[in-house]
Design a protein that fits this description.
By secondary structure, the protein is of the alpha/beta class. It is 38% helix and 17% strand. The chain is built from 11 helices and 13 strands. The strands form 4 sheets. The chain has a 7-stranded parallel sheet, sandwiched between helices. A two-stranded parallel sheet has the order 6-13. Helix 3 links the parallel strand 4 and strand 5. 41% of the residues are buried.
Length: 307
């Protein structure tokens, strides 16, 4: 019988964290969701999950509970999907680095009780990839997101000094029913207002939420796997292909011209430039391990998520 584990999640009330909590509890694992919110702000949790009060950006009593879990999944971090003012960049960085540093400090007292730290990173680690196919062995980029990812992963990797297995999950854009990119895109597409961004030729590395949960469950039992793991579909697509696939899934043909690059940069600043570059990332390590994707094709994935 598969071992049932106690899993602590930071950022567990967000879009990705809520989905993972549901997936983990369905498999019989117990999930503890670390939350800053008061009792009145908490969402209902599935059976097999509970809340732990605490702010992961601050040291506190919550850290004493960390060693009581075999798995820690660190998802905490403020959204990057906004205009990057100096204050926004500071918030994006501190929400990730402070939380991770406090988790690592808490793990220093685990004495082998905690088996693995899954620290969320992103394919932004690779910077603007252009046409290059990027794997876990590819070099990091040199822009803001790449520098943030390098620092974030470096802090998380310090847990290795306490005997922890550290897995650095580099997410592509997570496509799901109840949040994330699709929640922003679908209303516009349903109105017939969907269109590519810029040239539309930039690569888009993505993952279906069901496959993301499957990756975690798969890696729980892979005790020899550590370091970076690209959590993306094996079939990245160009922005114009994604746009066409979503329009087709919703029965809304794409007829509007592309959003000009100059408009994106004017409205979103530096973040707009990120949307215009993208990366062609493939999950080499997962493929070598034999992980089976349920939704490797973007057309099928979008039909599933919008049905």
């Amino acid at each position: 019988m598969e071992e049932k584990m106690r899993i602590l999640i930071t950022g567990g009330t967000g879009f990705v964290g809520s989905g993972l909590t549901q997936a983990f509890t369905r498999e019989g694992h117990h999930v503890t969701v670390l939350t800053r919110g008061g009792t009145g702000e908490k969402r209902s949790l599935p059976m097999g999950a509970s809340y732990l009060q605490g702010d992961p950006k601050q040291e506190g009593k919550w850290q004493d509970a960390v060693p009581g879990h075999e798995v820690v999944v660190n998802l905490a971090g403020s959204s990057i999907f906004r205009r990057w003012t100096d204050d926004a960049k500071k918030s994006i960085r501190e929400s990730r680095i402070s939380t991770t540093r406090n988790l690592v400090q808490a793990l220093s007292g685990s004495k082998g009780k905690t088996k693995v730290l899954f620290n969320t990173s992103a394919v932004g680690y690779y910077g603007a990839g252009n046409e290059e196919e990027l794997t876990e062995e590819s070099s990091p980029g040199d822009d803001f997101l790449a520098g943030l990812a390098r620092e974030w992963e470096s802090v998380a990797s310090e847990a290795g000094a306490f005997g922890e297995r550290v897995v650095l999950t580099r997410f592509g854009i997570v496509l799901g029913k109840d949040g994330g990119a699709l929640k922003q895109m679908v209303p516009w597409f349903r109105r017939g207002l969907g269109s590519p961004l810029g040239s539309g030729k930039q690569w888009f590395s993505w993952i279906h939420e069901e496959d993301l949960a499957g990756i975690y469950l798969f890696l729980f039992g892979k005790e020899d796997v550590s370091g970076p793991v690209n959590c993306t579909s094996p079939n990245p697509v160009r922005n114009k292909e994604l746009t066409a696939a979503l329009g087709k899934a919703l029965g809304r043909p794409i007829f509007l011209p592309a959003v000009p690059a100059s408009v994106l940069k004017f409205v979103l600043g530096e973040f707009g430039s990120v949307l215009l570059t993208g990366q062609k990332v493939v999950p080499k390590k997962l493929q070598e391990l034999g992980f089976q994707f349920l939704h490797p094709d973007v057309e099928e994935a979008l039909r599933d998520l919008t049905s």
